[in-house]
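Replying to the earlier thread about multi-chain prediction with a worked example.

Input:
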Amino acid sequence: MNTQSEMKPYVIGLDLGGTNSVFGIVDSRGEIKATTAIKTQGFDTVDDYVDASVNALQVIIEQVGGIDNIKAMGIGAPNGNYYNGTIEFAPNLSWGHDGVVPLAKMFSDRLGIPVALTNDANAAAIGEMTYGVARGMKNFIMITLGTGVGSGIVINGQLVYGCDGFAGELGHVIMRRTNGRPCGCGRFGCLETYCSATGVARSARELIDTTDTPSLLREMKAEDITSLDVSIAANKGDKLALEVYEFTGKMLGEACADFAAFSSPEAFIFFGGLTKAGDLIMDPIKKSYNEKVLKIFQGKAKFLISGLDGSAAAVLGASAIGWEI
Amino acid sequence: MNTQSEMKPYVIGLDLGGTNSVFGIVDSRGEIKATTAIKTQGFDTVDDYVDASVNALQVIIEQVGGIDNIKAMGIGAPNGNYYNGTIEFAPNLSWGHDGVVPLAKMFSDRLGIPVALTNDANAAAIGEMTYGVARGMKNFIMITLGTGVGSGIVINGQLVYGCDGFAGELGHVIMRRTNGRPCGCGRFGCLETYCSATGVARSARELIDTTDTPSLLREMKAEDITSLDVSIAANKGDKLALEVYEFTGKMLGEACADFAAFSSPEAFIFFGGLTKAGDLIMDPIKKSYNEKVLKIFQGKAKFLISGLDGSAAAVLGASAIGWEI
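Result:
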C-alpha cells in the first residue's frame, strides 16, 4: 500500500447496469463499507443522470468521513471504453445510445477525484479474478446475464481490451443469421436477444403463443411476464418455463462452443439473475456445449456460477480499477 | 544472439499444411538458406510421413553443412499443441485425424535436435509479426485460407494459446446452424466448409447446379473444379466465379464481425491461395464486415493481405519457435 492510499483509505465503485446503478465505497481489502443505488434509466440527459448519482453518493461519502477519504472512483459500464473513460453508443442506455459520453471526466469534475471506467462485464471479471471463483485462473470468460448479455475475457491473466478498449462484446455475436430477433444494437439475432433477462421473458411469450404446453405463466398477461416469473415457475416444475431454460441454455452452450474455438478458456463463469436458476440453466449449457464444441475441447472447460453475491462482483471490480489510477 | 545459436547458425522450419509440407532452413536474420517439400497426405501412418520428411530434410541439411549446424526445429501444424508438441485429432490429416500424434518428439528422436510445434496458423501469425505487415501490431487476427481455414490470434502482443494450447480454431466457428455443410471435424456449418479452397470449389459447383448464371466453369466436369479454376475464371470477369467470391467474402466479413466482438483487433490479415484474388475477395469482406459489425467497431479494423510470399510466412514463423527452445 502506498502513502497516498494509506492517507485516502477508500475508493468508490459504480456498477452501471442497464436497470440499476449500484455504488459502493470499498476499502483496500475489498470490504464494501457503504452502498447506495439509483435507477439507470428515466433520465433525459447524461447530466441529469450524473446529478442524481452525485446526490446519492454524497450521503454515503459522508458516512465514511467525506470526500477527503476517497482516493478515486472506478466505473463498470456497458460499452465502457477503458482507454478514454467514455461510454460509446451503449444500446441499452436511454441517455447513452447515440454518441460518446465522457462519463469518467464528468464524475471527476463533479467529485474532484480521479475516475476510471471500463466495460461493466470487464469489471465483473476483475472482481471475480480478485475475490471469486476465478482466483488463480489465467484464461477464462465471464458472461454476465442481466438486462443485456455482457462479457469479460481474460487471456494470459490479462483483461482483453482490444485495439480500442471495446473488446469483449460477446452478447453481440450473431446466433441466428436468418429471422433473428431485433437487438437494441440495431442488428438482428444477437446472443443478447435470446439469453438476457428480456430475452428469456420473450422466449416464454413465444412458447405461450406457439405451443400448447400447459403453464402457470399463461395465467399472466403476456406483456407482464419477466425472467423472474419464468424462474419462479421453473422452480415449481412448470413445463413451459423449463423449456425456456432448455432453449436458453442450449443457445448459451452453442455460443460458448464458438468462444472456445477463439480462446480455449479454462472456465466459463456466469453472473447475473439468470444464474439463480442453478442447474436448471447450467445443465443445458454444459450439455449443449459438449455436444456442439470441437472434439479437441470436449469435456475440458469448467462451467461455474460467480462466487460473488449479487452486484458485489461488479462493484468490487469497478472499485479495483480505482486503486490502479 | 547467445553463444549456442552462434555456434549453430540455423533452425529448421516446417509448414505442415493439409496438402504440402514445406521445410526451410533459416538463419537468425530470417533468411531461408535451403528449402524442400513433400506431400502431406498419402501416408498410411505417421511413421511413414516422418520417414519421408527426414529423407527430404537430409538433402537440405547437407547443403548447409550438416546437422551440427542446426540448433532446433519448429513445426507449424494443424491442431498443433504448443504445450505438448503434439498434433491432436487433426481432421484434415489422413494419419492424424484419429488421435494424439507426438510429432515434435518423433522428429526430435530422428534428428537429434530439440523440436517445438504450434498451430500452423499461429506460426504464420508469428512470421507476420516478425517479418510482415503485422510488425508493431499488438492486436491482430491472422486468417489462413488454405485446404482448411486456420487462425492465429494475437492479443496484447502475445499469441493466444488458451488453457490447453489449442486456442485460435476460428475455421470451426459455426456460420450456419441449420443446413450447414458437413465439415472434416464431424460437425456442420463451420466457416471452413465455406471459405477454404475446397469450400470455394464447392460453392462454385452449388451455383452451377442451382442457377442459370453463365460461366466458363460449366465447360468443366463439376468434380474437377478447384478454387484455382474459380480464381482464373473470376479474373476473366466470369459472372458465376465473381458470385462465388462475393458469397465467400460476405461470409468471411460476417465471421470477422463476430471476431471483433471478441478481441477488437487492429487488423485482420489474410494469408493463403484465396488472397491471390486480391480486391475480388477483399472488397466483399470489407463491405460485409462494415455492414454487419457492431456500430462501435465500424470502419476501425484494417483488412490486409499477408506481406510474406507463399508459404514463407508459415516456414519463417515455424522456424522462429526453434530459436526460442
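The two ends of chain B are 13 Å apart (CA to CA).

Feel free to reuse this layout for your own posts.
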